[in-house]
């Protein structure tokens, strides 16, 4: 089977991690796998190439206008003669599905519980074979708005650590906390991290926190750390490579995940696979599925800071409890969230759908509502407008 994964870019993140893992599995099953970026390459482009995948990019700035780019992407995908195309928040490809042949299986994957993600994935849904949601919450949201749309729930999978490099837990030593993800409060709740550490110190709990990631609230978080006098305890280390993040998780005791919303929360699974016990915000049909409360980790109601501190204190005071939960976390991930389970589920659906005939509109048609009227504005005018806006802000010292 010839399969294409389509992404807007290859930046470090949960979507790209999913694509690499599932792509690896397909290759091992004898499939031909192409990884296509429709907007720009991104910093994981070479990583995908090093894993033996055929990686291509069709930069958006090379097209005269976004609407022309969508047509180019559609023709690009059609020329690949793919048996299946898996879309991952790639709006130009999503808009051009009807340009594909009727024997190509088209599957958008919904990775996050976010309005824009739903808007892109469900656009042109009448031309898709089916949708995949990464969690029960995502599937319920789609069914509530589009009950006629076929959608399947398939959890992400992670690989087990190659060696048992789990960190030891010695009584009386600082509890090593870690946060991994975008440094953004709106979704990820990163400002709670400082309050959690302050609460732990107040209760006499020795902790160290490592923050891995970058984002729009990085500077604000750094300011909060400085103002609280926590520079020696809270380390913001920026982004790390895929392999480095997995090593970081295995060297910490507790993952903090104070997200307001998630599609799946992949980092919670990666942490448990490494023996790092998650303490996360309760998100119905997401974290209560990925984390077994009191067994493989803890869930906090409404990001209540005192609950975070109380649960961290339990793990700090009782070394045996942390060790027991760490072992349970590793076993649970191996049993429920393996790459093999994820890969088998996708392959079974793709193989079954190939036996069906799916009729698409043969005429040259795009999903205009997804692109919007700005898609007709030529790229050079869009670039000129952005340049003038930046120059104006700099001239008048207007903050973005």
TrEMBL record:
CDD domains per the UniProt record, alphabetical: GT4_PimA-like
Domain Glycosyl transferase family, by residue range, is 170-329
**Where on the tree of life does the source sit, at the highest rank?**
Bacteria
Keywords on record? Glycosyltransferase, Transferase
By its UniProt entry, which Gene3D superfamilies does this protein fall under? Glycogen Phosphorylase B
| Residues annotated as domain Glycosyltransferase subfamily 4-like N-terminal | 13-159
Q: Which PANTHER family match?
A: GLYCOSYLTRANSFERASE
Q: What is this protein called?
A: Glycosyltransferase family 4 protein
Q: Which organism is it from?
A: Thermithiobacillus plumbiphilus
């Amino acid at each position: 089977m010839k399969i294409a994964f389509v992404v807007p870019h290859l930046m470090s993140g949960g979507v790209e991690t999913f694509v690499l893992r599932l792509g690896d599995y397909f290759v091992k099953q004898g499939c031909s796998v192409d990884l296509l970026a429709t907007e720009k390459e991104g910093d994981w482009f070479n990583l995908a190439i090093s894993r033996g995948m055929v990686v291509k990019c069709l930069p958006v700035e090379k097209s005269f206008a976004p609407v022309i780019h969508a047509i180019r992407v559609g023709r690009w995908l059609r020329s690949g003669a793919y048996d299946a195309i898996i879309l991952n928040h790639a709006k130009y490809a999503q808009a051009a599905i009807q340009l594909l042949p009727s024997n190509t299986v088209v599957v958008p994957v919904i990775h996050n519980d976010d309005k824009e993600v739903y808007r892109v994935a469900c656009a042109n849904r009448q031309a898709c074979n089916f949708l995949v949601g990464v969690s029960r919450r995502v599937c319920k949201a789609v069914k509530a708005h589009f009950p006629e749309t076929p959608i399947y729930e398939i959890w992400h999978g992670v690989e087990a650590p190659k060696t048992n490099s789990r960190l030891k837990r010695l009584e009386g030593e600082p509890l090593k906390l870690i946060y991994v993800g975008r440094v953004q409060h709106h979704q990820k709740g990163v400002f709670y991290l400082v309050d959690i550490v302050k609460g732990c110190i107040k209760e006499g709990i020795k902790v160290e926190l490592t923050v891995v990631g970058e984002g729009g609230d990085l500077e604000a978080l750094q300011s909060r750390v400085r103002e609280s006098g926590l520079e020696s305890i809270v380390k913001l280390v920026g982004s790390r490579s895929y392999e480095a993040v997995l090593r970081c998780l295995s060297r910490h005791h507790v993952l903090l995940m104070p997200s307001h919303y998630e599609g799946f929360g992949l980092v919670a699974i990666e942490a448990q696979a490494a023996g790092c016990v998650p303490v996360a915000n309760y998100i119905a049909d997401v974290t209560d599925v990925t984390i077994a409360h009191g067994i493989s980790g803890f869930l906090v109601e409404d990001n209540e800071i005192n609950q975070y501190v109380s649960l961290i204190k339990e793990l700090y005071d009782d070394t045996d409890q942390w060790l027991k939960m760490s072992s349970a976390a590793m076993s649970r991930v191996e049993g429920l969230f393996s790459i093999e389970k994820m890969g088998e589920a996708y392959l079974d659906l793709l193989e079954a759908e190939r036996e069906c005939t799916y009729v698409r509109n043969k005429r040259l048609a795009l999903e205009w509502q997804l692109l919007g009227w700005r898609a007709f504005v030529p790229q050079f005018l869009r670039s000129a407008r952005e340049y003038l806006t930046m120059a104006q802000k700099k001239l008048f010292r207007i903050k973005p």
